[in-house]
Amino acid sequence: MKGLVYEKKAGKRGEAGTHLVLLAKNKEGYQNLLKLASIAYLEGFYYRPRIDKEVLKQYHQGLIAMSACLEGEIPRLLLTGNLNKAIEVAKWYKELFKDDFYLELQKNDLPEQDKVNEGILEIAEKLRIKCVATADCHYLDKEDALAHEVLLCIQTGHKLSDPDRFRFNTDKLYFASAEEMKERFKNYPLEVITNSMEIFEKIDLEIKTDEILFPKAKIPEGETVESYFIKKAREGLERKLKELKAKGQLAEDEEKYWQRLEYEIDTIIEKGYASYFLIVADFVNWAKSRGIPVGPGRGSAAGALTSYALGITNLDPLRWGLLFERFLNKERPSLPDIDVDFCMERRDEVIEYVANTYGKEYIAKIATFGQLKARQVVRDVGRVLGFKPKEIDPIAKMISPGINVTLEKELQREEFKELIRRSEKIKKLFELAKKLERLPRHVSQHAAGVIIAGKPITEVAPLMKGDEGEILVQFDMKACEAVGLIKFDFLGLKTLTIIDHTLKLVERYEGIKVNIDDIPLDDEKTYELLRKGETDGVFQLESDGMKELLRRLKPTDFNDLIAVLALYRPGPLEGGLVDQYIETKHGKRKPEYLHPLLEPILKETYGVIVYQEQVMEIARAFAGYTLGEADLLRRAIGKKEKELMENLKKEFISRSVERNIPLEIAEKVYDLIEKFADYGFNKSHSAAYALLSYQTAYLKAHYPVYFIAGILTYSANKSEEVSKYIALANEMGIKILPPDINKSEAGFTVEGSAIRIGLYAIKNVGEEAVNEILKKRPYEFFYSIFVVKWILKR
């Protein structure tokens, strides 16, 4: 690690810190390095992360220190002719680090470096400190020097032609080979080269990447994590079965529920994930107990009966044919991943609860590193090279949109080849842009990921502060996983907030307390709205394409709605699956099954493979795969590796034939699942989100005024959204009343069959002003907004 060091706490404002290189010698050193990196960001940050010498003194054990480049403290003193002070500083480092402090010698064609080297050798001899030859590496290869200059210009907002731009006056700041280092230092004692090996041999550190640092669930005294998990899961299922029985909604015999739960419990405990489930259940149920809206489920976790029993999800997986193995199975070595949707406005309360419950030192959000993507890097490099906006914009716009687009691929297109042939300047533009593409551009916060660790995070990863003061791990999601940190996803979903607003309005004005989890899933009025495609404001169903699909498909039950969300994607739409589903549903064609075993699996989707779970069921029915093996097959097919695909096909056909499936049928069935494996969608996710779609459609069908008022309240500070839904209200025959100083509240309210605009929707009227207006009502009279302002100032 190269960092900034100051003489005293935080340094003086504007004072430039000096560089110091620190290497972890062992585990203690690595943990101290993590602590120093965290302190530099959390306590010492001023434009850049930094530490002072007192902090370094506290956490120096197990570290090797090196005097760094020309920006190091000792080189900087030598450049100003202050040899005595440089000796004093070197002595301080020598006393602190003993034989683990080295003076760096560099050769980079800079005259000031030669001057520093002379001083370094003098100090080394006087204080008996070893020297080591190093290269100040800012880029990998010598050929990257110009690209590095361009990057500096991007970072500082300059052009390459600017005479006063920040630059390094050398092209020797690359990773030099051993041979080149020997050549550079041929006039120096050999030990300055061999001392690098001495440093290497001192390092005895292995960073574990196979240890999973599961957080520890809070459990009662006398219980183990496993026993408490089993107890909570069984108690939870017992409650759920009573509820389902009372509603007449048991999908299977109770025995089948219990068998499924015990199977899932065995898998979860065997994989060591009991604590994970208890923690998720804890914060989800805490949120529910505080009236914070929580989604019915998200992703494959909705397929786990255990999630349902613990209250994490609100969807009976047996009723809707959801598979646990799509989420977790013994054959797949992956971590559990339960994503939870919370009300957008109250999500942070849940994260705060987790921090207070499990300890703030165990909790942090995850950093994401924005990269220089294809279009952006071409624009940035173009500006640095002096292209005018009217020159670079058309070139940038030629690049395909999308986050996975690369210049390497784009430049294979003929139009780009022609551009490069015609212009050396454009050729240079793309050469430099390709070198800089995908480099980190900025740090931000992961949208939902929160680490809950099994030990203080600074023991395994460094921390930093985000733009808004939030604590972040300095690693991205993949690096967090590599060091054993577990990610929990706390997502904010505006739909939950809108549903909450709507239900509160209904209760307030109608005196009806609607439990959104108890609404019937066979409501004809709701399906009529869906069949007409009147779905503006309805979750996931607002787009023109989705409305058209609804009008064509004409859903009649909840299974149709699950299928709608799964079918509305490019693969099924372009592959003809949607047409086949619709035509078969409406009796215009008969469902076709290659073999009788397919009928029970594909009957609900009219002979069409819509879900990934159906691919898994087919593999089990024909080839005798366990559902865990079938999930691995599904994932492997998606990788599209030729050799792997051939082996998979052979195995599937062989196992099918052993089960008396005719060879020809086995081949055709495999071809079928191979074809549709890409198209298949996760049914668990589709079912959970279909429930939210249905709930919002139900509210719109039965409580249209309150539903639109709920949407408008959520969207109050988004003028485009407000305009859109006011227009929708007008189309629905709902009158919109203007804001009124005495009648309007913060959000939108209902007056009879009309909606009154809330004060938050008024441009430039913030929360503080709204609170003051509401506090000092009623107002007997006022002449204008200026009088209101005057009243507020009194």
From TrEMBL:
**Gene3D superfamilies reported for this sequence:** 1.10.150.870, Bacterial DNA polymerase III alpha subunit, thumb domain (1.10.10.1600), Metal-dependent hydrolases (3.20.20.140)
Query: Does the keyword GTP-binding belong to this entry?
Result: no
In its UniProt record, which GO terms are filed under biological process? Answer: DNA replication
UniProt entry tagged with the keyword Transferase: yes
Q: Which Pfam families match?
A: DNA_pol3_alpha, DNA_pol3_finger, HHH_6, PHP
Domain of life here? Bacteria
Which intervals hold domain DNA polymerase III alpha subunit finger? 495-659
Query: What catalytic reaction does the record list?
Result: DNA(n) + a 2'-deoxyribonucleoside 5'-triphosphate = DNA(n+1) + diphosphate
Enumerate the spans annotated as PHP domain. Answer: 15-107
Keywords of the record, alphabetical order, are: DNA replication, DNA-directed DNA polymerase, Nucleotidyltransferase, Transferase
- What CDD domains has UniProt attached to this entry? PHP_PolIIIA_DnaE3 (cd12113)
Question: Which EC numbers characterise this protein's activity in its record?
Answer: 2.7.7.7
List each coiled-coil range: none
Domain Bacterial DNA polymerase III alpha subunit NTPase residues, every copy: 228-492
**An example molecular function term from Gene Ontology annotations:** DNA-directed DNA polymerase activity
Q: Where is the DNA polymerase helix-hairpin-helix motif domain?
A: 733-784
Task: Kindly give the SUPFAM superfamilies that the UniProt entry links to this protein.
Answer: PHP domain-like
Name of the molecule in the record: DNA polymerase III subunit alpha
Q: State the organism of origin.
A: Thermodesulfobacterium geofontis
The record lists the lineage as: Bacteria, Pseudomonadati, Thermodesulfobacteriota, Thermodesulfobacteria, Thermodesulfobacteriales
